Amino acid sequence: MTRMNRRGLLKTGTAAAVLAASGLSVRADAKRGGRLVAGLSGANTSDSWDGRTHSDLFMIASAQGTVFDSLTEVSADGSLAGELATNWEASPDAKVWTFDLRKGVTFHNGKPFGADDVIESLQIHVAEGSKSAAQPIVDTIADMKKLTDHQVQMTLKTGNADFPYLMSDYHLLIYPAGQIEEAIAKGIGTGLYRAESFEPGVRMVASRVDSHYKDGEAGWFDEVEYIAINDNTARMNALMTGQVDAVNRIDFKTEPLLRANPMINIQEVTGNQQYTFPMLTNVAPFNDVNVRRALKYGINRQEMVDKILLGHGQVGNDTPIGPANQYYHGDMEQLAYDPDRAKFHLKEAGLSSLDVDLSTSNAAFEGAVDAAQLYQASAKAGGVNINVVQEPADGYWSNVWLKKPWCACYWSGRATEDWMFSLSYEEGAPWNDTQWGNDDSERFQNLLVEARAELDSDKRREMYYEMQQILRDDGGVILPMFANYVQALTNKVATPETVGNLWQMDNGRMAERWWAV
Length: 517
Known about the structure:
Layout: H1 6-11, E1 17-18, E2 35-40, H2 57-63, E3 72-74, E4 80-82, E5 85-90, E6 96-101, H3 115-123, H4 135-138, E7 141-148, E8 151-156, H5 163-166, H6 180-186, E9 193-199, E10 203-208, E11 223-228, H7 232-240, E12 246-247, H8 255-259, E13 264-269, E14 274-278, H9 289-297, H10 301-307, E15 313-315, H11 339-348, E16 354-360, H12 368-380, E17 384-390, H13 396-399, E18 409-411, H14 417-424, H15 442-453, H16 457-474, E19 477-483, E20 485-490, E21 493-494, H17 504-507, H18 510-513, E22 515-516
Parallel strand pairs: 2-11, 2-12, 16-17
Antiparallel strand pairs: 1-5, 3-4, 5-6, 6-8, 7-8, 9-10, 10-11, 12-20, 13-20, 14-18, 14-19, 15-19, 21-22
Helix pairs in contact: 9-11, 15-16
């Protein structure tokens, strides 16, 4: 069987997509044994095994590909592979998708896996009162039908050539039907590792299961332990003193010290990770497009890349579609730092100056507080007075993001344009952190639906280019930079030559893909 990358999927969206049994290639130098201890940021005391709530690396890495599986998986090279689904095919209009499910799989409590588990696991994301970030994905499904115990058919409201990619979303974990509450409480999945202990915001320990369908292709460690270390200095110290084998988000200021250590290897991966400052466009003064434009021209983007990323990235243009996306509009005119234009747009908004709070914390991204202070200094020349509010790191994502009118944030980006736009910019989406859905986004919202169902790649490109221009000019996000993923590991751990770039630590699947040496 062959794997199909995104470009191939779009070209043949009406045909059967036949995927590798696991999507993982056997590595001759990988062997079973050993223990992986990783120090990770992004942990919270409110963490749980409920995929609907996952938003940062600690739980993403603990759940998907470790304790739980999804229907599909984005491989390290960006191709799409089957996980609990083995094959799928679409109707000519990409509206009806039929998935063949893997046979012989059992949950960690012994329950056999089948179609009922898929249907119930997806339904929880659109249940009454659900605040799942994957709600926009599942809500596009008009009907789910069990054809056999190992085949399920999904009929979409409109065609979507990217739909199999969406089934790899890290929120869409598969739980045992009729036992979902228990599975969330205890961490019962079909993954390579069984949850042994879990202390929210502290640590997670899992042990390798026997007789897994990925045997010989993945899951090389006997045990994995993830330790929550949100503080950057503490995380770097844990690596340098040998307390952990790997860390995410290295501190660029200590990078030379890490590189000088012969026991430590630095990994740098270019992807679509983006550092942002979203504003709620349904709250004054951000409901005025001229205020938003003043803020767009009041930021020195190159200065942030130079001083915050220390060159580990590139400037952004207020659109989430990045250099790793197929329809990235790299030729679009770059927003420049222009205090005079910022003053012009303030005048158009009827203002001579603007006083505004910006909530931030290094929990949003490493260097977020410094970035906000740089923004404060550059915006002042354009008549914008930014009051930087430093928020507590613990609870930042539950108490600040989506609640404070203007804050710091980061996104990992997504493999497809529709996935990214639907998650964070579609009107009514739970993670639409600008609440951009008023009259000036009507054209964008219409294009989103049209592009989703369009199977002609050239027409899709035109639509996605226009959407990026609309966001740049009128949207409610300031996206000054795309940041490379820079992580570190000791020479006790080996990785494949190609490491995933969807999000940190090999798409969060280090327990699956890495091995001990």
